[in-house]
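Record type: monomer structure entry
Structure origin: computed from sequence
Chain ID: A
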Amino acid sequence: MDSKDLQQELRELLGDLPQRAIPTQTDEDRAQAAANTGGNPILDVAAHSNAGSTPFIDYLNGDILHTLQQPRSDEPEEMTFISLAHVMEVLFKLLCYEMLRAKDSIARDALDETRVTLRRVHKTLEFLGQTWGVLSTITPHGYLGFRDYLGIGSGFESFMYRRLEFMLGNKQPRMLEPHKHVPSVYQTLKRTLETRSVYDEVIALLHRRGYPIDAQALDRDWSQPYQSNESVKAVWADIYRSLPPHHELYEFAESLVDFGDRFKLWRFRHFVTVERLIGFKPGTGGTAGVGWLRHIVDQNFFPELWEIRSQL
């Protein structure tokens, strides 16, 4: 992916909501404003805003953002559920954004850039995991008070989460099905399904660094689920055995495991929170509820990095 392709994909991810005009400022402008106000906030912002708005509203589209939380029941706890679901969706988008950048830097052998991006991704995943702490404050009584209004709606249908899973290598073609009647979403997910994942780029990097990787791991049908490969496992084992922990590739491997660790914890908190709310009742989207989620917790990204642990 060249720089132009990356920027196009990032722009597509961000969407096409028009940006509102905001006068830009320099350090000199800010210094002059602080001198004029004596260091106090500017209270008359009309001259700096669009009609009926403020610069901060314009920058964040805050007036739109705060219309999105619309409970459908009289149950007060529904607001917590909707608000935290929105937070998760935004964080999924941020993770997709960062992982597109990580994928690009890996393809360019720019692991210093990748390391910076992954450090931010790790913190984002930690924050994402904390959302379940808030959601777990919803009582069973409160959840049952609005659950029927979900219909068959389920986080299972989150297209941004699905995009993230596909980007990371959890390719499942059947997961396109819920989105087939939403053309823009379907085409984006299909493209993500059919192109290399972040982990596919990692494997290609190892090959470029001179490590022996089987051809079937380097050129395959990218839309199919990744299967653990013995040559990839052998390469990771060699890196862990022969390189010191401060070596670039060793640290990179551990960063990937850190990512998988935090993602697994998020899935586990999901599983526990759902069990806390509804026990073993079926899920809203037709799943077996926590029984299905338990299976999801057991999935690992970057499988060989986990498998070699018992061989070291």
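Annotation 1: The two ends are 35 Å apart (CA to CA).
Annotation 2: The mean pLDDT is 92.
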